[in-house]
Design a protein that fits this description.
There is one protein chain. The N and C termini lie far apart (50 Å). With 72 residues, the protein is mainly α. It has two helices and no strands. The protein has one domain.
């Protein structure tokens, strides 16, 4: 049985990233916990950026498709 990849939830990832940033801003993070949160934050930021870029490309494709259709 193969491991099924969890579906990425953009809203949850963004909320988690905001919570990580807030914990650093509050200054209540010890060194070990901070390193783990920093790594998790970088992962989330990269995933969010990748997903957002894909969504922006999809939106552009849709706009082009329907703009071209309206010209015909």
């Amino acid at each position: 049985m193969s491991k099924e990849k969890k579906k990425f939830n953009f809203t949850k990832a963004f909320t988690d990233l905001e919570a990580i940033a807030a914990s650093f801003e509050d200054g209540g993070v010890d060194l070990e916990e901070g390193i783990k949160k920093f790594e998790q934050g970088l992962f989330l930021a990269r995933e969010l950026k990748t997903r957002l870029s894909k969504l922006e490309n999809k939106i552009e494709e849709i706009k082009i498709k329907y703009t071209d259709a309206l010209k015909e």
